[in-house]
Structures are given as structure tokens and as C-alpha cells.
Amino acid sequence: MPQGERAALALAVAGNLAWAAIYSSIQVIVYRRALRGWPARSTARAPHPSDGEDAWRPSGRFDPRAVAVAAALATALLLSGTAWPLLVGVGAWLALAWAFSRADSGAVALGAGLGAMLAVSALTGSLLAGLGLDQALRRAVRAALLVAVATWLRAAAGPEGLREVFRRTLRHLRRVPAAAEASSTLDGLDHGPRLVAAGRALAEALAPVQKRPAPIADAVTAWVAGEAAGFHAGTDGSRPRLRLRPPDRVLVALAILPAILLISPLT
Fold first, then answer.
1. How far is 190 from 163, CA to CA, in rounded Å?
2. What pTM did the predictor assign?
3. Half-sphere exposure of 211 toward its Cβ, with a 13 Å CA cutoff?
4. Distance CA 118, CA 109 (A)
């Protein structure tokens, strides 16, 4: 068998090409089956009670733009190293951010589960690689903090706030090809409750289906057709009014402070 770095790279490239060919073939087969079996007249699903919640409402204390910037800074700091002072500093900032942001707790359970899973994976992987207990613990804590920061971003900004941040970012990048089109597409996307309702409809559609590829593909096709028939892009065309206040600036400034703990050992 070939050995060395070149052999590893060649094996990785060959494996990726093989899996790409397999997945592409499966996609083409499913698409062709869906096009042949697409219903001539799609019946829209019954509206869910949460479908009418179209108005944008602030979900927390801070401006979603400040939340996004602070989360990006904290993520960059965590990716820059695993020193204990840095991890403790980011953890302390995150605890304060959670306490004062009036964040939605709906995503905490999922974030905690994902963070625990990644922390255990980082811990066991580092131990198996022979990096030592201290390095393994630091990598596990960093993995948990990365997920915690992302969870806080989702909870503090809210889905509507994040969508508005992305839309405004794309608007400023209007010279980039397709940025303007992507910004207008975001205007017509549904927010969280409608996505949850669509997911529930899919689960209900798949419940009685035989667990084989063809029946599942047909059920998903019927679900997509029903969701497409009942979708109406856009709501009332309103835009949230965002305004940066002193607490937002304090939030971002505090997110930068752990960088001092990272720089001080080098000076």
C-alpha cells in the first residue's frame, strides 16, 4: 500500500470523488422520480396556528447586529487558541451576555446536547492522539464554548433578527454577483414558526409510509408539492427598525476584552 502524505491526499481525493458520484446518481434518480410523479394539482396543507405570526418582534435586549458582531468576535477568539485565561475570559463574557440579553431559552436544550457531544468527541480524540489531559480538557472546553456562543447568538438575536442582519449585509455587498438577488430572496422567506409547522407536516406525512426508499421519496415529493402550493412569499413588506444603543456597544466591547488575556502572555 502507498505510504506518506501524498498517498493520504490521493486516497482522500479518490474517496471524495467516489462518494460524489454515488450521491449525485442518487440525487438524479430521486429528481427524475419526483418529476414523473409530481401531482398535477397540488393541495395546500391546512394552515398551522403559528403561520399567522408574521410580525417581526425584538426577541431580546440587544440589537441583533451587536449580537452578531459580539458572537463573531468571541468565536474568533476561541479559534485563536486554547489558553485557560482566554477560555475563562470568553466563558465569563458569555455568562454575562446570557444574563443580560433576555435570550429565548427554546434553543438551549439542543445547544447543550450538541455542545456536550462535541466536547466529549474533542476530549476523547485528544486523549487518543496522546496530547495529554490538560490539552484534551482545553479543547473540550473550547468545543463546548463554541456551541454555547452559537446558541446564544440564535437565542439573543432571534431568527427574524438574524435574517434581518444577513439581509442588510447582503445589501451592502450589492456589487458581489447574486448578492442583491439573495437579499430579495430573504425578504420572502418564512420565519421560525412556519418552518416548524412545515417540519411537523413532513413528520405526519412520513409516519404511515413504509420505510423504503421509493415510498419515502414519493411521500416527500407530495409534501414538497403541498408546501409549495400553500406558500406565499412575503408578508406586509415591513422592516424592523434597528437602533444601536449604549448597551449594544458595551456588549461588543466586553467581547473584545478576553483578547487582552490572549495577548498579555506574549508581551
1. 10
2. 0.64
3. 2
4. 14
